[in-house]
Amino acid sequence: MEPSEPTHREPDLWPAYLAFYRDQIVHSVLGLEPARRRTSTVPSGWTPIELLSHVLHMEQRWFIWGFLGERVDDVWGDWTVDEPWDEGADGRWHVPADVTAESLAERLRVLGRRTTDILVEHPAEAVAAEGGRFEGDPATLGWICFHVLQEYARHAGQLDVAIELGTAAQQ
User: Fold this and answer.
1) What pTM value is reported for the model?
2) How many of the other CB atoms lie within 10 Å of CB of 167?
3) Of the ranges 33-37, 43-47, 66-70, which is most confident?
């Protein structure tokens, strides 16, 4: 699938595709019953709500902290991150029980509007601020968009499979 309103202007492609995949993930997670949002169906153990939280903080890290160089109080999110390079860690993002999928989705929507503003205000060739995420050789906004888009597309596909596996298990 693709955004329903095709555009031929390259500057319009990034916000349209980012919004499309962002919305796909939100719609998929919110379409699940609350218990299924916190139930893993894959061997790695991540849950749909954890993936939603991950993409929220991933987008924040790349556009706000990375491109703009703004301070972000909790770059890795509201959860405990088990560092995947530490022996014995499971590499998952643990979302506290009092954090809802609805609250994460709303935060992601707000962030999405901010990302769109960034994309409208800066050309794709603009170089990210030093500091924040980048030191030495900062990426361009176009590179960041490409990276975030591929991450969204990959995670949307993973979520589709996880939901399908969960549905099959319930039958």
Assistant:
1) 0.87
2) 12
3) 33-37
